[in-house]
TrEMBL record:
Organism: Allofournierella massiliensis
Assigned EC number: 2.7.13.3
Protein name in UniProt: Stage 0 sporulation protein A homolog
Role description: May play the central regulatory role in sporulation. It may be an element of the effector pathway responsible for the activation of sporulation genes in response to nutritional stress. Spo0A may act in concert with spo0H (a sigma factor) to control the expression of some genes that are critical to the sporulation process.
GO molecular function: ATP binding
Record-listed 4-aspartylphosphate modification sites: D771
Amino acid sequence: MEKQQRRALNSIVLSITTLVVVATLLLVGIGLVRDKMMRNTQQMGMSLAESYARETQSRLDGFARVFDMAWMYTIRGVDANMSEERMQEGMAEYQQNVHELFGGHVADLYAVIGGQIVAANPWTGDGVYDYSDTDWYQRALASPDEVIFSDVYEEAITGDQIFTLSKAIDTEGDVLVMDVYINQGDVLDLEISLPSTYHFYLFDTDGRLLYRLIDRQATDPAYAEQLISGVRDGSLFAYDAQITDPKGVARGVYYAEMDNGWTVVMTIPIQEVLMGEKDPVIYSLIGVALIAFVTLLFMVVRNILNLRRLAETEKTIRVLSDSFFAIYRVDFEAGTYRAIKTSPDLRGTFAESGDYDMLLAQVKKRVHPEAYAEFEQDFSLKSIAQRVKENVLDYGGDYQRMFGGSYHWVNVRTIYQKHILPGEVILCFKDVDVEKRQQMQHMMILQEALDTAKTSAKARNTFFNTMSHDMRTPLNAVIGYSELIRRTPGDAEKVTGYIKKVEFAAKQLLMLINDILEMAKLEAGKSALDVKEFNLNEYLTEVCEMFRAQAERQQKHFELSVQIKDPVVKGDSFKIGQIMNNLLSNALKYSCEGAEIKVEARQFDYQKHSKFQIVVADTGIGMSEEFLNHIFEPYARETHFTPRTTEGTGLGMPIVKSLVQQMSGEITVESAVGKGSRFTVTLPLEVVEQHDGPVIGAAAGEASGEAAAEAAGSLAGQTILVAEDNELNMEIVTELLTMSGVQVIGAANGAEAVEKFQRSAPYSVDAILMDMQMPVLDGCGAARAIRRLDRPDAAVVPIVAVTANAFAEDVDRTTAAGMNAHVSKPIDMDRLLEALALCWAGKTPPAPAPGE
């Protein structure tokens, strides 16, 4: 034993001595490699910094080149006494070139000419702007032949960081100027491909940090100041000089100065520097030393690792054992058991080993009565032996077992491994009460979800059954009254009445279809917001006025109260109109003669977005408390007894709620049978404090109404090209237009429409009505083709989309294709006349109203 200990000690001493020698060789080699790597990396870093400095300078030179072109244009304009308006247009063109070149609004171009500011984009206060004391103005006059680059400074009006290019014009005191916004577009978005740990900075002559390319974190101002100070005072010039960044990482610093005094700085972690270039000789020596070192270390540590491995194995077995509250080895051939671990409540009730039937009897006493017979059968010696014979290695299941007066779920298993324990199985018990109850709860949730899905499917089936009835009713009216019209051609009064009823039934059917399509779009998530500025006061008034007339016809009192101090807002006016149309339609539909319908709108200030509350209340038939719980569910409709039959698709209120939620708003409802209903919609809308352009309002509706009134008399003698592939639709449009004195040129597809327009004499076609979906060439393609034709009227001839594609995205498509207006099918002749009149007047027709 002593010899073995002495040998082990000598082996350890020898191993330690050898390890010290090898470690010394490694340290010397690492020192040599480190020194050489640091020197090489300095050369590489300085070269990279110079390269990026040249790239940055090239980007600035790009501004200078465009600026020189604008300067030459300005000189020619000054020499030619060009008007200020023409000068501004030219500057705007050059400014647009800069924006396209550098990706966005990156520069403002203006000039000092004759003591006045002439700008591509004039700004408020340019007439009193004191430019004479600015650095860029004085330097431009001092060096008239040079493009002057200023340092970065804060723009006086917007507060943005900018630098300025300026150059004197030949006339005395005149200077061309361009402000460049360094944080816009691609001004300083350099195409630098560096590892994520390499940091890149750009400083101006005052040491201000202009640009950084690091790991998406803000740069510490103190660290940036320390970095540029060390560069400029030379303290970071040495090849092994380094700086510690805010994260505590030591970095080498490499830099280069640009022509305009800006400085490019790049830092590389010292750790990565040392892992850079590899010298084969040195690394070969280090590799040999490392192999020897690792081999010796392996020999020294191997025994320790073996001991640790045994200890870890023991811990693992203990952990696995702790997950089971009882473990037994069962010899199914001899009919005996041996306890490895016993349940606390069974300790002392039987021996640690003995007859298996005795163990089974004790365990069965605690099994739930419902599982007793099955447990006894499945875990008898006969059953265990049969499973082993069938090579079932793992068998078990869950049952309830008594613990301290209550039942817990337990998992019991028999595990068999022939090569490890031949003739024996492991019988183990594990408490799985928490997992089992969670699983059962999850199953309950799934069952509830299944029940909900079945309920939804039932509601959907009910909806389709109802929809079948609701759609067949107007269809039956259309077909029936059409037959009556055919059979009574001589009775003009009856025919007129039948026609009105056909129109009413057709509008009912159109409303049903619109609701179904709108709900489908909302469920598919394809209804996007179209946020624009509009006057909420005027818009609500305009919407309500359409329903006021209907209320008067039905002898109902209609009242509107608007208390909005900031009427001009940003939002989707179209969807707000859809919400109002649904709520007001319901208020009129579900109220009787003499009822009151009130609309109230008020404003509440809330941070950046004010909240606008719109209340639609009526004294109609109301809704039952039971239905209020389902009012926003698709396909649900009130069925309580009322003086009126239930109308609609059951989709109106789900559409309203989806639209309100899409705009981050809220909707609540209060109602009682026989007392009426009150809907409150709250929407957050951004207030537009200053507004110079036109907004949506009542004035637009009045103008369009006047245009529609004038249109009817303006059609006589006009020539209109109609592109329509459906023969019935072509016949309807042709007859309607011909009745108004229009000469119609028909085209069966988009390609034919382009060809006929191209063959016509210039300005002989007064307007084009274009369907969207046609063979050969669709309406959008035909419109684009017509706009590209080389003839004087191609760009100005009014093109009106007359199509069944009536959603907002369809309007956007026709507008992008060059069409002037959009009229949806079924054709409303008044709206078509209105659109044509506005087009001929050079105005933009309003977008289709909700539901049109």
